[in-house]
Design brief:
heterodimer; A: mainly alpha; flat; B: MetI-like fold; 71% helix
Chain lengths: 315, 301
């Protein structure tokens, strides 16, 4: 166990290096001269002079060869300095930190909501396989996977904020303001998790040790809760990294709709204004979060599933 | 020489290749499942609408008519008009064209990369495999929609750039799956036979392995169309994709945002169109997967 954790941690620096390279490469695919972009943004409507562009290139360090720029950027990033926004000239790292809490609140409540409904629905659906409950749950999961979070968000706003005036449509600060965005964000992962848990409960219920437990005369509830559930929830734990990535992707759109002051809103604004340092810093930041979440998931799975400890680690 | 190799590969009945009556039976099975039949109906309707949109007797989707802006649905405009007086019904129908073309192009791009990387990795193994899969693992750490957003932001707004961006990031998880499939296929007797007959690696991959794994690739791709439609429409909604006046569902949602209180149908209709398209493709994808994967073939399994 300890050896596994050490081995996984040992690959982290290499992966982080790779992540930084990908993020840095993003900037180099951008057409046009960033120095000119900055000047145009700061003085809208004016054609920057070539002298001003050259000065800005030097100021931003863009006159150095790409490998040099990369090493500079990376060594600064290691020290927590992700550069400054082209537009606001604020340090990118500060903005990322400031906007992490709202996004964490939103994604955590959406994930909680998704699990709260997906786990019982998945189990119930598997237990009543082929019955009415199963049909309803499967239909709900199918519909849930096809509804886009943005269309759902507008549907919720129109119904609960405009027509019924039960909940505020936008804004940040109160629990009431979090209800609609969290619900809109939770639907897709809820559908995904329900299908996953249903399939995995069915899989586990068909195994020999469950037949043994049943033949011992244990009540069906004990069989499901004490014997089946532990193994059936493992794939759900394994999917945490993927679900988190989906949630963060969905948060980008949901935060924009509900004017939620999180990371998603920041990146959309930055992408639209070509504020490359912000985009770059954000992508790096999220990749590191997902990477660490995946690592934590794998370790958690090893603790929960003793079978894995006897297999040769493949990654 | 090479034709011998091809024959050696094709004559070895190592797995039931779906030819003739068996395949026909399977297609019937696909239609018997009500969900899949509904999915096929939705997909075919969308394809027809998308293909025929320019020739249908409907209004010009880009014709601006300011005096008739934000009209409620009527006989003349079955879905009403938008903030510029354009016919919403026509824009939804033409939107199918934009969306399907965008999804198809993205799918071709991402699947081409995924198949190339996956097959090379699975077939050769060794250090190319290690290197490619290391890159795949690395890219998997980036949430795909966000990476696509960043690429689209770097390239600048536009539907074509969104296609490039989504295609460039969407292949990653498929490459891993295709690698696994190729790895299993490489050990099959027909590959050994082809190699013994002197076929080159390139020939074995393209003429022997590729046709055999095509079915599984099609299933992967069909399950992916829904996600791609959601992704492309999402980026267009954020303002990075289709630019005005192109009729595109995500962009239509974005245009309609200021009119949420007065004309909610302008938001609900493109939302419903996206839903129908994604649902249709997901149903077809599920049906194809059940058909191909015996473990999930039982209804409810």
């Amino acid at each position: 166990m300890g050896a596994y954790v050490v081995r996984r941690l040992a690959t982290l620096p290499l992966l982080l290096l790779g992540i930084s390279a990908v993020s840095f490469a993003l900037l180099s695919v951008a057409p046009g001269d960033p120095a000119e972009t900055v000047l145009r943004q700061r003085n809208p409507g004016q054609m920057p002079s070539s002298a001003a562009v050259a000065a800005m290139r030097a100021e931003l360090g863009l006159d150095a060869p790409l490998p040099v720029q990369y090493v500079r950027w990376m060594s600064r990033a290691l020290g927590g300095d992700m550069g400054r926004s082209y537009l606001t000239e604020q340090p990118v790292a500060d903005q990322l930190v400031r906007r992490t809490v709202p996004t964490a609140l939103l994604t955590a409540s959406a994930l909680g909501l998704a699990l709260l409904l997906a786990v019982p629905m998945g189990i119930l659906s598997a237990r009543r396989r082929g019955g009415t409950v199963d049909a309803v749950v499967r239909l709900a999961a199918l519909v849930g996977a096809a509804v886009s979070s943005y269309a759902l968000a507008f549907g919720l706003i129109i119904l609960f904020a405009v027509k019924l005036s039960w909940l505020p449509a936008i804004g940040y600060g109160s629990v009431a303001q979090m209800v609609l965005p969290a619900v809109a964000l939770s639907l897709a992962p809820m559908a995904q998790l329900t299908r996953l848990i249903r399939a995995s409960v069915l899989d586990v219920l068909g195994q020999d040790y469950i037949r043994t437990a049943r033949s011992k005369g244990l009540s069906e509830q004990t069989v499901v809760v004490r014997h089946a559930l532990r193994n059936a929830l493992l794939p759900a734990i394994g999917a945490t990294g993927v679900i988190l990535a989906h949630l963060l992707g969905g948060a980008v759109i949901i935060e924009t709709i509900f004017t939620w002051p999180g990371l998603g809103q920041l990146i959309v604004g930055a992408a639209l204004t070509r504020d490359y340092p912000v985009v770059q810093g954000f992508v790096t930041y999220l990749a590191v979060i997902v990477l660490l979440a995946n690592l934590a998931t794998d370790i958690a799975l090893r603790i929960a599933d003793p079978r894995l400890r006897f297999e040769r680690a493949t990654g | 020489m090479t034709s011998d190799a091809a024959l050696a590969g094709e004559r070895l009945p190592v797995r039931p290749v779906t030819i003739g009556p068996r395949r026909r039976r399977q297609w019937h099975a696909l239609l018997r499942e009500p969900g899949t039949a509904l999915g096929l109906f939705l997909v075919v309707s969308l394809l027809l609408a998308g293909l025929l949109a320019p020739w249908l007797p409907i209004a010009d989707p880009t014709e601006i008519n300011l005096p008739e802006r934000l009209h409620a649905p009527s006989a003349e405009h079955p879905f009403g008009t938008d903030h510029l007086g354009r016919d919403t019904f026509s824009r939804i129908v033409h939107g199918a064209r934009t969306t399907l073309l965008a999804a198809a192009a993205t799918l071709v791009l991402s699947m081409t990369i995924a198949v190339t990387v996956g097959m090379l990795s699975g077939y050769y193994g060794g250090w190319p495999d290690t290197a490619l899969m290391w890159v795949v693992d690395l890219l998997l750490a980036f949430p795909s929609l966000i990476l696509a957003l960043a690429v689209a932001g770097a390239l600048g707004p536009g539907l074509f750039n969104v296609l490039l961006a989504v295609g460039a990031v969407w292949w990653v998880s498929h490459a891993r799956i295709i690698r696994g499939i190729t790895l299993g296929e490489r050990e099959m007797a027909y590959v050994t036979a082809a190699r013994a007959a002197g076929a080159s690696d390139r020939r074995i991959m393209l003429r022997h392995i590729a046709p055999n794994i095509l079915g599984q690739i099609v299933v992967l791709a069909s399950l992916d169309v829904g996600w791609i439609i959601l992704g492309v429409a999402g980026l267009s909604f954020l303002g990075l994709g289709a630019q005005p006046p192109t009729p595109e569902w995500g962009a239509m949602l974005n245009d309609a945002r200021p009119h949420l209180q007065t004309a909610p149908q302008l938001l609900l209709l493109p939302g419903a169109a996206i839903f129908v398209a994604v649902l249709g493709f997901n149903l077809v994808g599920d049906g194809l997967r059940d058909l191909l994967d015996p473990r999930t073939r039982r209804p409810g399994g």
